[in-house]
Amino acid sequence: MRELTIGKNDAGQRLDRFVSKSLPLLPAALLQKYIRLKRVKVNGKGAKRDTRLKCGDILQLYINDEFFDKPREENLFLSIFQPKLNIVYEDENLLLADKRPGLVVHADETEKVNTLINHIQAYLYQKREWRPREENAFTPALCNRIDRNTGGIVIAAKNAEALRILNEKIRAHELEKSYLCITVGHPNPPQGKIEGFLRKDEAKKRVTFHRRPVPGGKTAATLYKTLESRGEFSLVECRLLTGRTHQIRVSMAEIGCPLLGDGKYGSGAINRRCHETRQALYAYRLAFRFPTDAGILNYLRGKVFTVEDVPFQNIYFPRNENSGTK
């Protein structure tokens, strides 16, 4: 319990507005709940949210200590009252979340609070699976990233051992990530392997594909398979053998089949005609192959997790009994 004394400069304010300004990390909906439950008292008694405070009033706040901290990037998850997650799988060691397009995974220059990692941390905090003040250093962390406008499975580790193992397995290519995408045009041949070198221009935030080694270029290899074609579009499954920035988008554009909705590497005219503003790309399947020992995660060996609802697939390639689509 914390106590606050109202001074002359704070007198006259509503109770809820004063507490909200004093504890910026406390979500507004949670504050209203605490007032109703009388976990916010004025001079030892419960009070209504619109109570006008007077000079000398003493507030008793029965609120977790975390909410009294100053806002910092690492504790902004506290300001999320109702975490929004599409959970594909969860156990005591990890969580697989289906990130929808438009959501950033980590804070960037445009968004600090509404991020995937903040929603995951808020979810685990509210479940009491993670108690930040009892941890010396560990916080739940993401093991892979997906671009803002790409959707799909993101892995979050719940403890330090799981994080260490998953990072090792990702570096060793023991996790198999498969993507669905819609291409403008039909890949020829229908399936194959695209190999080359990708070079990123940090200033332009753009990647170029090269068939031969170039300074600053990194090797890239992508397997692709056409699942179905309708009209000018194809539904293609891609599997990454390397993990480079914009790898699938650049590689498919290189073979003359850019992704629908891709503003960097695709067709602006077709994107506008179809009213698509995000690339049709989704990390829809994750397989834990683990040919080597995985410690506390050995039980995941051979497990495959799939997102069943891929938005753009339902629009352009709806599944039915006569379709060969997965």
The number of helices is 7
Which class do the helix and strand fractions yield? alpha+beta
In terms of per-residue confidence, which ranges show pLDDT below 50 for 5 or more consecutive residues? Answer: none
Distance from N terminus to C terminus (CA atoms, Å) equals: 55 Å
Proportion of residues in extended strands:
25-35%
The best one-word shape is: elongated
Radius of gyration: 25 Å
Helix share, percent: 10-25%
> How does the major sheet shape up?
11 strands, mixed
Number of DSSP-assigned strands: 15
Q: What is the H/E string?
A: EHHEEEEEHEEHEEEEEHHEEH
- Calculate the mean pLDDT score and round it: 94
What would you say about this model in short?
The chain is 18% helix and 28% strand. The chain is elongated, with a radius of gyration of 25 Å.
3D structure, described in words:
The chain starts with a strand and ends in a 10-residue tail after the last helix. The strands form 2 sheets. Strands 5, 6, 7, 8, 9, 10, 11, 12, 13, 14 and 15 form an 11-stranded mixed β-sheet that branches. A 4-stranded antiparallel β-sheet has the order 1-4-2-3. With 326 residues, the chain is an alpha+beta fold.
List the helices and strands and how they pair.
Elements: E1 2-5, H1 15-22, H2 28-36, E2 40-42, E3 45-46, E4 58-61, E5 87-90, E6 94-99, H3 116-126, E7 141-142, E8 151-157, H4 160-171, E9 175-184, E10 191-201, E11 206-210, E12 218-230, E13 233-240, H5 247-254, H6 268-273, E14 281-288, E15 304-306, H7 311-316
